[in-house]
From TrEMBL:
Keyword Transmembrane: yes
Record carries keyword Lyase: no
NCBIfam families associated with the record: zip (TIGR00820)
Pfam families hit by this protein: Zip
Compartment annotation: Membrane
Keywords tagged on the record: Ion transport, Membrane, Transmembrane, Transmembrane helix, Transport
Recorded family membership: Belongs to the ZIP transporter (TC 2.A.5) family.
Protein name, as recorded: Zinc-regulated transporter 2
GO cellular component, one term: plasma membrane
Membrane-spanning parts: 38-57, 69-92, 112-131, 226-248, 254-276, 288-308, 320-339, 360-379
Composition skew (Basic and acidic residues), residue ranges: 194-206
Highest taxon listed in the record's lineage: Eukaryota
Any one Gene Ontology molecular-function term assigned to this protein's record: low-affinity zinc ion transmembrane transporter activity
């Protein structure tokens, strides 16, 4: 009787383990149509590259007479696209991958998607904090040296004129007001008031220019950091999209159509940011390089996926974990970039938006919501 009970308990336990932990799929749903998939590679390449590079080209070639409002629309529409991509197209797939029933072990015992995204946000904040604190460019160093020289000069001037003040003369530690051009008996001297003589006026301008140069350099460093972080996150995401499309089965047609819009909109968001970034003359081609790098990311992944179409298992345990982890990292990158750089910085910390009319601010916010809404809608299919 005891033996029968133990055997029954063992069978039930094995059955439950089989039901809760099914084996991961080691194949894929590739169903041929190689020519259509190759065509998809070129269509997505054209759409992605056009979305990323056209705003840059149009901004730099005023002869095209592209209305300025189109850049306004593209900029804030693209911001919404990037924010929606983080939440709908990255967080959700990452959670789906890492919560797959076939996975076992430590990966199933903790909400890793949210944890990895949170860690990524803190890492990016630390990186940007260090860049803002320690980044030094030639102009900034020149400004610092200029400010130091002016400070030493001012100290020397103060030591030389330690008996005088701006509005008086010190005699026995007492300040006596100066009459115009009179210091003492038989002695005339004009008190220095900044801006009233040529040297004082020049010093004021030099100080202002040094402060402006330092501010512009810090702002440039922040923009460069944000741009490269955004590029990194989007390319990560695009690579896995390409691999998935390459071996998709019956859903290939729908996925292909959706990804054309997805990649074009995402490229528009990136390209509008690259277009308005104040690149130095020696690095003006960097914007195009970043745009074309984004345009090539998904097609390259599609080509790789087609090359290993007979052996690539998108639903295997290893691929589920890799996709889930990298989607979580990309989600953290785009969440940080979207909320901090594209929303808070552009709306609340931007001097342009602070001084803009309410209609302009509401229009920008509306375009951002439109971009996020359309991108979220595409999440129904891809």
């Amino acid at each position: 009787m005891s033996f029968t009970g133990d055997l029954t308990h063992l069978i039930i336990r094995q059955s439950a383990a089989t039901e809760t932990s099914p084996s991961c799929d080691t194949g894929n749903e590739y169903d041929g149509r190689l020519g259509l998939r190759v065509a998809a590679l070129f269509v997505i390449w054209l759409g992605s590259s056009a979305g990323a590079c056209f705003p840059i080209y149009a901004k730099r070639h005023q002869g095209l007479r592209v209305p300025e409002w189109t850049f306004f629309v593209a900029k804030y529409f693209g911001s919404g696209v990037i924010v929606a991509t983080a939440f709908i197209h990255l967080l959700a797939p990452a959670h789906e991958a890492l919560s797959n029933p076939c996975l076992t072990g430590p990966i199933t015992g903790y909400p890793w998607v949210e944890g990895i995204a949170m860690i990524t946000v803190f890492i990016l904040f630390f990186v940007e904090l260090m860049v803002m604190r320690y980044a030094r460019f030639s102009n900034y160093e020149h400004s610092d040296n200029q400010s130091d020289n002016e400070s030493h000069g001012q100290i020397a001037e103060n030591e030389h004129d330690h008996h005088t003040e701006r509005d008086g003369i010190v005699v026995d530690n007492k300040s006596i007001p100066l009459m115009p051009n009179v210091v003492s008996k038989g002695t005339s001297r004009s008190a220095h008031v900044p801006g009233e003589d040529h040297l004082g006026h020049q010093r004021e301008h030099q100080n202002d220019e040094a402060n402006i140069s330092a501010h512009e350099t810090e702002d440039y460093a922040a923009q460069m950091t944000a741009i490269f972080i955004l590029e990194f996150g989007i390319i990560f995401h695009s690579v896995f999209i390409g691999l998935t499309l390459a071996v998709a089965g019956e859903e290939f047609d729908t996925l292909f159509a959706v990804l054309v819009f997805h990649q074009t909109f995402e490229g528009l968001g990136l390209g509008s940011r690259l277009a308005v970034t104040p690149w130095p003359k020696s690095k003006r081609w960097t914007a195009y390089i970043l745009g074309f790098a984004y345009g090539l990311s998904t097609p390259t992944a599609i080509a790789i996926g087609l090359g290993v179409r007979n052996t690539y298992p998108p639903e295997s345990a290893a691929n589920l974990i890799v996709n889930g982890v990298f989607d979580s990292v990309s989600a953290g990158i785009l969440i940080y970039t979207g909320l901090v750089e594209l929303m808070a910085h552009e709306f609340m910390f931007s001097n342009v938006m602070r001084k803009a009319k309410l209609q302009v601010v509401l229009a920008a916010f509306g375009m951002m919501c439109l971009g996020a809404g359309l991108m979220a809608l595409l999440g129904k299919w891809a």
